[in-house]
Design brief:
Layout (H helix, E strand, L loop, with lengths): L1 E5 L7 E4 L10 E9 L3 H7 L1 E5 L2 E4 L9 E2 L3 E9 L11 E4 L9 H4 L23 E4 L5 E3 L5 H4 L5 H10 L4 H4 L2 E4 L3 H12 L5 E5 L2 H9 L4 E4 L5 H8 L6 E4 L4 H10 L5 E4 L13 H4 L3 E4 L5 H12 L8 E5 L3 H10 L5 E5 L4
Parallel strand pairs: 11-12, 11-14, 12-13, 14-15, 15-16, 17-18
Antiparallel strand pairs: 1-2, 1-6, 3-7, 3-9, 3-18, 4-5, 7-8, 8-10
Helix pairs in contact: 4-6, 8-9
The protein binds zinc ion (2 copies).
The site of one zinc ion has 4 residues, from loops.
């Protein structure tokens, strides 16, 4: 089998050839039909995250070992499976849940494998989808996608699930109050779509790029604000006349945190998802005095991905704009992502020309 692997941090992915694995036990081998390119792949192939104050979090400290086949948004077609794999057939086209844990710890047993302390995530800790084949440890991680195509389904495994997992944290507030969405890349734009699909009160969309704000308005946002405007904070606070109670930050930079937390009314919630990096400098007394909640959200659970795909398959979420490139062009897709020129999402396909 062929894959594009990280051989050294900070270098382009390199084409590699491996023995195609034989599925054993409950394992399932799929032929990759589409793999979404995610912004976190840039951090991973670069070797780390900026923690602010000159500190970095090395991905090697999070259990990443090289060489690595990245690609955690994968849809594929079942080729073969081990003798203990139940309920799966050759030819099934499925989305892969990538946020695998150890399977036995309390977090995994609660159904939140994505929060496991010994993660075994596809495309991060074990080989992912920038390849023509992928091995999945158990059929329960495979989710039906029809009538979506593999290209349309792939981004739901991270981009879609990350947006969904963050919005679910708002509970019933989503339906009764506007939510500010900061950062309208693939994930933020998906969140705007989901606010509508979940019958939310409405999304206030913020980005520095006008074309991204227009895309959010087209996706149903009730208002769009230039996050770089000098009065962005007062515009955001004014966009919710009864007081802004929910902000989801898909950038996660010191600037966006200042904007998001600053615009919140008393009792408001700031949920940070983006891994842009940096440090939060905020006077602690303001958290109790303003009764603020500051919460993080990291991807989502298998149950949430199943729920999200049921919603997507019912046609309640318009199919996200997906650009398709051949797998061999993955390094140039990374360059486009670095330059911020992609609207929506890109997927790579091993069989595309
Ligand atoms: Zn991702
Ligand atoms: Zn676990």
């Amino acid at each position: 089998m062929k894959s594009f692997d990280v051989i050294a941090f900070g270098e382009p992915l390199r084409e590699c050839h491996h023995e195609t694995p034989e599925p054993k036990g409950s394992e399932v081998l799929l032929k990759v039909r589409a793999a979404g390119v995610c912004h976190s792949d840039l951090h991973m192939s670069g070797g780390g995250y900026d923690l602010g104050g000159g500190k970095t979090l090395k991905v090697t400290d999070r259990g990443v070992k090289l060489p690595l086949t990245m690609g955690h948004e994968v849809a594929g077609e079942v080729v073969s499976f081990g003798p203990e794999a139940q309920g799966v057939n050759a030819g099934d086209v499925r989305l892969v849940f990538p946020w695998l844990g150890c399977g036995v710890c309390p977090a995994c047993k609660r159904g939140t494998e994505n929060l496991c302390r010994a993660p075994n995530c596809i495309g991060i800790h074990r080989p992912g989808g920038y390849a023509d084949h992928i091995l999945v440890p158990h059929p329960r991680y495979l989710i039906e996608i029809a009538p979506l195509t593999p290209e349309q389904a792939a981004p739901f495994a991270c981009s879609g699930l990350t947006a969904f997992g963050a919005l679910k944290k708002l509970g019933p507030l989503l339906q009764t109050a506007p939510v500010a969405i900061i950062g309208l890349g693939g994930v933020g734009l998906m969140a705007v779509h989901l606010v509508k699909a979940l019958d939310g009160f409405g999304a206030i969309a913020l980005d520095i790029a006008e074309d991204k704000r227009n895309a959010a308005l087209a996706a149903g946002a009730i208002r769009a604000i230039d996050a770089g405007a000098p009065d962005a904070l007062s515009q955001l606070a004014a966009a919710a006349p009864e007081g802004l109670l929910a902000v989801i930050d898909f950038v996660g930079s010191p600037k966006t945190a200042e904007l998001g937390i600053g615009a919140l009314a008393r009792g408001g919630r700031y949920i940070v998802v983006g891994l842009y990096g940096g440090e939060l400098n905020f006077p602690l007394p303001f958290i109790p005095m303003r009764a603020l909640t500051i919460q993080g959200s990291y991807t989502g659970s298998l149950g949430e991905l199943q729920e999200l795909m049921t919603l997507a398959r019912s046609g309640r979420i318009p199919h996200p704009e997906v650009g398709v490139e051949p797998l061999s062009a993955v390094n140039s897709v990374f360059d486009q992502l670095r330059e911020g020129t992609i609207i929506g999402r890109k997927v790579v396909r091993p069989d595309a020309i």
